[in-house]
């Protein structure tokens, strides 16, 4: 039985054939503040060879969700071919792109973040995990992480993530739904 614990998720992913070249890809998607980063950290503890990337750094600022799928796909396609992948890093404090990061082919890549499991590259994904929590819990976590000064971005972000997930059908495509 798969419960949504990091060990169960890792076991399930490793029981499946590679989908990202010789490696596997776990996408941990879901709602802001639902616990995606915590779950990804748990996987990293169990699989030290894993490369864990937060897609927040691949967004072009607060309104960057619509372009995230293309950014991630540009990273994944070379990896699927056995070559290093690249992604541009967004500096949230400077509000600008801040260099390019390189990811070498790896046995396990974990992408976590809102919009990390876009339908356009679904064939490259070994396992999609959807993480959700009640809105009040999510807001409290979000404010604890980002601070009250970021609260004005919350409503626009919620609308953007709702539109993205409705368009992508992410929860419906998920292999596993985890409620925190």
Account of the 3D structure:
The structure is a single chain. The chain has 180 residues and is α/β, with parallel strands linked by helices. The chain has a single domain (6-179), classed as P-loop containing nucleotide triphosphate hydrolases (Rossmann fold). Helix content is 37%, strand content 23%. It contains six helices and seven strands, in the order αβαβαββββαααβ. The protein has helices spanning 6-14, 36-46, 65-80, 135-146, 154-168, 170-173; strands at residues 24-30, 51-54, 85-91, 96-103, 108-112, 127-132, 176-179. It has a five-stranded parallel beta sheet with strand order 2-5-1-6-7. Strands 3-4 form a two-stranded antiparallel ribbon. Strand 3 and strand 4 form a beta hairpin. The radius of gyration is 15 Å and the shape is globular. The mean pLDDT is 91.
Task: Name the features.
5-stranded parallel beta sheet, 180 residues, globular, 7 strands, alpha/beta, two-stranded antiparallel sheet, Rossmann fold
Radius of gyration: 15 Å
CATH H-level homologous superfamily name:
P-loop containing nucleotide triphosphate hydrolases
Principal-axis shape equals: globular
How would you characterize the largest beta sheet? Answer: 5 strands, parallel
**What is the number of E strands?**
7
Order of strands across the main sheet: 2-5-1-6-7
H/E series = HEHEHEEEEHHHE
Examine the secondary-structure arrangement and name the CATH architecture: 3-Layer(aba) Sandwich
Number of domains: 1
**CATH class type:** Alpha Beta
Q: What is the beta-strand fraction?
A: 15-25%
Structural class: alpha/beta
The span between the termini is 18 Å
């Amino acid at each position: 039985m798969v419960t949504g614990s990091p060990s169960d998720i890792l076991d399930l992913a490793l029981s499946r054939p590679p989908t990202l070249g010789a490696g596997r890809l776990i996408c941990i998607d879901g709602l802001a503040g639902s616990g995606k980063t915590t779950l990804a950290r748990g996987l990293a503890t169990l699989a030290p060879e894993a490369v864990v990337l937060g897609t927040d750094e691949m967004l072009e600022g607060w309104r960057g969700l619509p372009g995230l799928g293309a950014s991630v796909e540009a990273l994944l396609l070379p990896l699927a071919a056995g070559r290093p992948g690249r992604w541009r890093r967004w500096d949230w404090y400077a509000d600008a792109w801040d260099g390019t990061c390189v990811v070498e082919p790896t046995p396990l890549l974990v992408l976590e973040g809102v919009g990390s499991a876009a339908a356009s590259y679904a064939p490259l994904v070994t396992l999609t995990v959807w993480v959700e929590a009640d809105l009040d819990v999510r807001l409290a976590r979000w404010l604890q992480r980002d601070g009250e000064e970021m609260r004005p971005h919350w409503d626009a972000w919620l609308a953007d993530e709702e539109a993205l997930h409705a368009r992508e059908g992410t929860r419906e495509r998920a292999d596993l739904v985890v409620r925190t």
